[in-house]
């Protein structure tokens, strides 16, 4: 007997084994008997043709090999939400509830003891207690009978219905409208239809704070239409949706704190200007979005932009940013504290990874975390001092001078190094003598002439040593252990510099080289144990 085809099969989502697709045709096919389903598969490798067979086009596919015909009995059209919940949590009357002995009943693998209650009432109690529900990959395709979810699962707050057979946003509303206090919803990996025009705004998402719509083929225009029903949304995940163009979110998404647009190939970096006025946005994820530059045209050198006023965390890793000018621009963000920027072409311009990190830190004044690593105060101080010295010669050649009256660096230099004047104010302008013989960027294996003192043992005479600046603190401790015949693990090192009068800088990271702390020849290393 042939399997029954649902009356609304056209456009429905189906599963066939582990493959997912959309029904594009229902009917007969020439020179065959019976009903066929023409399916456009999510994975085009699963298909055989573009919807045509023996010269007749039965349906259309986006991929020339994305379609095929299957018999209805091979297609899984899915189940309603509540059936999936009962199956997932072992609470299905027909399959998983087994009668135990005496006053017990077994729910899936869980045995529950009853005190004057029957199994149906206990099952209802179990469902009512569910707060966090996941029915991922459970073939959910529709909401089921009206109000059945609200009667059965009254306390749900967090729902994961990702990778199911949900055909449209209306189906999501039909499920969510029965969950009074819904806070988190994951509908990712459901290729569904979204409204294309402004429709009646449902109150289904009146308490929703977190929404994931990754891999749903939603456009930004559709996001803004649906967002009219998300009045308190705080986190929105839109990864891998082929979003290329953005629009201003007028009167919607105003409560948003996190936005994930990763793996969408945006037209250009200027698209970001269209979402720059979201007042509460604290975290923006732009990983692998194809952007090649970042620019905030409303602010000049050394000024803060009015764009992204609350943005604290920004991820721009895996992009095409090739110019350091984009990193300079990030210093204009008034609230930026954390940055991820790995795997961008600009990082290939500096072969020494330590120098690369120092340059980024020095260019962005308020940064506290870089590529998931905390920036310690000593690290920032060292980075800024090195930056000031590395580009000191360029500064002098561009018209810079230690005398404020003669200090007139060119606009070209200030465009490339907008923070340099601030670093000169902070640490003092570099003088010509300080920069003589300097080579570009970090010097490898340059020998430092250092005086080593033991302040707690005045009888120990100071020792002068020549050490390579690439030598780690751990190796320095080993050398001093042999020199002073004391256990290296007990040593505490710091240094004094004529440029930091009255200040003592701890050498507190055994894995860092001397150059990390901006130690220079003539400085004094203090040894305590």
UniProtKB/TrEMBL annotation:
Q: Which UniProt keywords apply?
A: Acetylation, Chaperone, Cytoplasm, Cytoskeleton, Leucine-rich repeat, Phosphoprotein, Repeat
**Protein localization:** Cytoplasm, Cytoskeleton
Q: Which GO terms describe its biological process?
A: cytoskeleton organization
Per the UniProt entry, the signal peptide is none
Task: State the family it belongs to.
Answer: Belongs to the TBCE family.
Give the matching PANTHER family.
Answer: CILIA- AND FLAGELLA-ASSOCIATED PROTEIN 410-RELATED, LEUCINE RICH REPEAT PROTEIN
- What protein name applies here? Tubulin-specific chaperone E
The upper taxonomy is: Eukaryota, Metazoa, Chordata, Craniata, Vertebrata
The encoding gene is: Tbce
């Amino acid at each position: 007997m042939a399997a029954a085809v649902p009356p609304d099969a056209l456009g429905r989502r189906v599963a066939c084994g582990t493959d997912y697709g959309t029904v594009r045709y229902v009917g007969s096919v020439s020179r065959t008997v019976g009903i066929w389903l023409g399916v456009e598969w999510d994975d085009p490798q699963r298909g055989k043709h573009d919807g045509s067979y023996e010269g007749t086009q039965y349906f259309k596919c986006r991929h020339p090999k994305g379609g095929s015909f299957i018999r209805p009995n091979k297609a899984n059209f899915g189940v309603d939400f509540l059936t999936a919940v009962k199956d997932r949590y072992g609470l299905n009357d027909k399959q998983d509830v087994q009668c135990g002995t005496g006053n017990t009943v077994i729910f899936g693998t869980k045995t529950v003891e009853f005190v004057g209650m029957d199994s149906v009432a206990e099952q209802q109690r179990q469902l009512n207690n569910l707060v966090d529900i996941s029915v991922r990959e459970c073939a959910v395709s529709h909401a089921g009978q009206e109000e059945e979810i609200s009667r059965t699962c009254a306390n749900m707050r967090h729902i994961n219905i990702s990778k199911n057979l949900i055909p449209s946003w209306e189906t999501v509303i039909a499920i969510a409208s029965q969950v009074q206090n819904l806070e988190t919803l994951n509908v990712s990996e459901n290729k569904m239809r979204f409204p294309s025009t402004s429709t009646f705004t449902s109150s289904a998402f009146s308490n929703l704070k977190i929404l994931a719509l990754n891999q749903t083929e939603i456009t930004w225009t559709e996001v803004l239409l649906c967002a009219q029903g998300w009045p308190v949304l705080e986190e929105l995940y839109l990864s891998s949706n082929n979003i290329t163009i953005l629009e201003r979110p007028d009167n919607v998404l105003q409560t948003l704190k996190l936005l994930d647009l990763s793996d969408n190939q945006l037209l250009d970096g200027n698209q970001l200007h269209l979402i720059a006025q979201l007042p509460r946005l604290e975290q923006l994820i732009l990983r692998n979005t194809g952007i090649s530059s970042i620019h905030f045209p409303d602010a000049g050198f050394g000024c803060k932009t009015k764009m992204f006023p609350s943005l604290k965390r920004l991820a721009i890793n895996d992009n095409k940013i090739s110019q350091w000018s984009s990193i300079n621009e990030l210093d204009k963000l008034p609230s930026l504290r954390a940055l991820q920027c790995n795997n961008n072409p600009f990082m290939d311009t500096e072969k020494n990874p330590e120098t690369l990190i120092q340059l980024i830190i020095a260019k962005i004044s308020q940064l506290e975390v870089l590529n998931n690593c905390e920036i310690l105060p000593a690290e920032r101080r060292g980075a800024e001092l090195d930056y000031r010295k590395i580009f000191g010669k360029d500064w002098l050649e561009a018209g810079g001078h230690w005398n404020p009256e003669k200090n007139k660096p060119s606009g070209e230099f200030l465009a490339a190094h907008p923070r340099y004047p601030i670093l000169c104010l902070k640490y003092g302008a570099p003088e010509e003598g300080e920069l003589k013989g300097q080579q570009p960027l970090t010097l490898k294996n340059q020998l430092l002439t250092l005086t080593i003192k033991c302040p707690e043992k005045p009888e120990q005479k100071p020792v002068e040593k020549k050490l390579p600046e690439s030598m780690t603190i751990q190796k320095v401790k080993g050398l001093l252990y042999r020199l002073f015949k004391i256990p290296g693990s007990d040593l505490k090192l710091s240094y004094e510099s004529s440029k930091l009068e009255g200040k003592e800088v701890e050498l507190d990271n055994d894995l860092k080289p001397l150059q990390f702390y901006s130690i220079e020849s003539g400085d004094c290393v203090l040894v305590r144990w």
